[in-house]
Amino acid sequence: MKLKYILFSGLISLGTGLRAQVLPYKNSQLPIEDRVRDLVGRMTVEEKVGQLSKLLGWEMYEKDAAGIRVSEKLKDAVKSQHIGLLWATLRADPWTQKTLKNGLSPQEAAKVTNAIQRYMVDSTRLGIPLLLSEEAPHGHMAIGATVFPTAIGQASTWNPKLIKQMAQTIARETFAVGGKNGYGPVLDLARDPRWSRTEESYGEDPYLVGKMGEAMVKGFQGDRTRKEDRIIATLKHFVAYGVPEGGHNGGSVSIGERALRQSFLPPFEQAVRAGAGSVMTAYNSIDGIPCSSNPWLLNEVLRKQWGFKGFVVSDLLSISGLNGSHATAADAIDAAKQSIEAGLDVDLSGSGFGNNLLKGVKSGRVAIQQVDIAVARLLHQKFSLGLFEHPYVDENLVEQKVATAEHRAIAKQVAREAIVLLKNEKDLLPLSKSVKRIAVIGPNADNMYNQLGDYTAPQREDKVKTVLQGVRATVSANTHVDYVKGCAIRDTSATDIASAVKATESADVAIVVLGGSSARDFKTSYQATGAANVESGKESVSDMESGEGFDRATLDLLGDQLPLLKAIVATGKPVVLVTIMGRPLNLNWAAEHVPAIVNAWYPGQEGGQAIADVLFGDYNPAGRLPISVAQSVGQLPIYYNHAKPKHHDYIEFEAKPLYVFGFGLSYTTFAYDNLQVAVEKTNDDFRCSIQFDVKNVGDRDGEEVTQLYVVDEVSSVVTPVKQLKGFARQLIKKGETQPVVFELTKEDLKLWSADRKWETEKGRFKLLVGSSSDDIRLEGILVLEKNYTL
What we know:
29% of the residues lie in helices and 19% in strands. The protein is α/β, with parallel strands linked by helices and 790 residues long.
């Protein structure tokens, strides 16, 4: 009996020892490279290929009266495809057919992602957690999350510090419910506002876009040493996606390597060097090579020259586009082969790689080493996120991390700082809060979805503050506020201008809220990529005139908006025009006839109150345009930093835009003085200090956005007529003077030479300091006496 006990005890000890022996890839004390190597070595070819597939996530859970659980579709995908990632699991919108009723609250979302990860850890051979990617460009695109202004509004703040704080908030909310990868920032230069996705961009200038993108990446990711509340950023869309011919979304682009190097690539390089963990390829081609199969772009530039260590993901179905719309691959296997050999690691859809890549490997058309490299890149990010140690989120903390009062306050501040005052004739603004009667008119005055932009989840009605609500909350109790919609954005079947005119005639001032909309509805049909289909001849016409897929041939206000505005102005009452829109629209008539114009882009959930704060003087606006506002589509492209020579006027009107890049007014006035330029030179670099004073000479405290532009007077290759090289937004109290300092080094003045290398050439550089790209207050000169290499 004693012998049996000893033997039994020995077996227990042996079993305990075996269980205690942690496999190398599960040992968090080992270097990540060792863990990746061990795990890849244990995987079958099917598991490796499957790890690179990112499927549509909103199909992977079930919610009904019985509760929340993983779906049979997930179980089948894991069993048959060995998937490694999901996209937009928590997304809700008309495309996904997820509503406030059948979608997920934040608390339910955390339960779903935990259930999914628990299934992966407990029910798969190797227990590899999924990387859950979520749309997060202006807030997590999930029910209950905070909705911030879209990117074009974020850029109008000219405040990277605030945008970093916003990005930290988005990361915190996304992380809280299980998302570990946020899609954003969008770093496309928007130089043709006919393009439907202008609202998702930071505008037309590479320097401003780069600063905003860097802020987003640092806000999302932090320094990556702290895992909680941090998510991987995915940079979109690599590269030159925002300048399609004719403004056609996803269309071909016509740019050369020099333009690519000097304008379109720098924002991505800046974000990569800030530590971005993921990059998404664009749908378009560059000089005949699709971005999803471009080895020069993905391997030479991105990895070799910039040192990118993350993974590259396709845009939805873009691998399939190689043997589809691009017609550069003979079949689906060839498309998979071209993409993975070019350096594309992850397939968003699961149909581009999957069986096609597996067949390619097994037939010898694709080397397994190519698959191993891609898998290693993805696994490295999973390990660095701590997914293997902490695959689950704390469901009890969701309420403390999502849609908090602090987050709403940040959303309001971003909306306030994004507002651009375009015109204020005879100081009509700010309005008095005690005015007796106000008429609030227009299709965007009380429509919450029209002020949120594309990539936005369904919202509770009490969550979003419209302009009408903001006005009513701001004015005195004795002020009467009338509201008349007047017309829709596009639909002309229910226009009621007469009622709007009647309300205005009885009012002391009219606030007219016009513009555009990216609000998707359940009547719209969508492409497989998620872009909306533009359909004409339908009985019911949606407001949507912007957002992915809604490209424009003109930039005019649609529907009966301009007739409505003209009728209101004709009453003779003071009129304030507020524009809520996703792209710069034609404001020529308004600029000539309306005394005050305020542009808010898509200001997010707190936008209505932010606009009211500006209209009634609780906030002094200081937003600046990140994109030029054209007088006509015939001027396009009209970005300020075009290549020399300077544009000459047209027969019909001048060449300059209606409102220039960097423009924006204030309720106070600033004076610039005392420019000093000092240069310290070393053998391999220089440091040029540009210092000047800015004084608030008005009667209100206010913020000024000072801007530094540089002109390379003589260069070996053609350079822009001027280039933004510095900006600063700062509060200056009335009567006060504050110094501003900018610094330039050889990195700031480099050009891509005729010898195809970076150089900063000797010569004269004109330094322009001012309040916009054409409001220059001070000028200086920098002279370099030698060339500098980079």
